[in-house]
Amino acid sequence: MKFLRAVPRSRFLSIAGGVSVAYVFLHLLPELGEFQEAVHKEFGAPGEGFLSNHIYLAAMVGLVLFYGLEQMVKNSKCKTAEGQSTAGVFWIHIASFAIYNGVIGYLMIREEFEGTVGMSLFFIALGVHFITNDKGLRTAHKGEYDRYGRWLLAAAIAAGWAIGWLTEVHELIIAFLMALIAGGIILNVLKEELPEERESSLGAFVAGLSVYSILLLFL
């Protein structure tokens, strides 16, 4: 998608960010509320109330985790003369996103969609989110990402789908993984939209968020 390299920044990326945020707040977080009830039943014994009432803590952990990864990459680039992250940081970063992609791949087959429309909305939201992540990772790692990273992340989605096809992970594990993903999506979208040097488009972001919100609310 060569148009994504346009200067100033392609408005499609801001639209994609709006779509991803709408998906998190109108679909993923409400679904976590349903998982919260399952967690409460599983961990509702005396002395376990803190865990049973804080599945959203996992979403916050996901946000902090990916924020920490971004800071690690930034610090690594500052310490090298070429402005490139070190090999170790690159592989840690890619491995983290591979797990992230793998969980989403798993959800593609194990998520309970409301028919073809629901599945299509999931595909659109996460598809454009992958494009945003791809842009950010290529900017951070350049040639290394093109040589190795993008292929590993694509394979991770397929691997997650295959695991979902072959076996079913316990519902509570999926609940916490989805919470981590929700936090990760929020951080990854905002880090692409908020910095001044990104030259983001507020209008495109709001348009993507509004149109996708209407689709989620009325379809």
Uncertain residue ranges: none
Name the structural class: mainly alpha
Mean pLDDT: 79
Q: Which sequence of SSEs, written as H and E, runs from N to C?
A: HHHHHHHH
What Rg is obtained from the alpha carbons, in whole angstroms? 18 Å
Total helical segments = 8
* Largest sheet properties: none
End-to-end distance: 29 Å
The fraction of residues in strands falls at: under 5%
Shape type: globular
Share of helix, binned: over 70%
- The total count of strands amounts to 0
Task: Give the secondary structure arrangement, pairings included.
Layout: H1 11-42, H2 49-52, H3 56-78, H4 87-110, H5 115-141, H6 143-166, H7 171-193, H8 202-218
Describe it for me?
By secondary structure, the protein is an all-alpha fold. The protein contains 8 helices and no strands. The protein has helices at 11-42, 49-52, 56-78, 87-110, 115-141, 143-166, 171-193, 202-218. Helix 1 runs antiparallel to helix 7 and helix 5 (115-141) packs across helix 7 (171-193). The longest helix has 32 residues, at 11-42. The protein is globular and about 50 Å long. The model has no long low-confidence stretch (mean pLDDT 79).
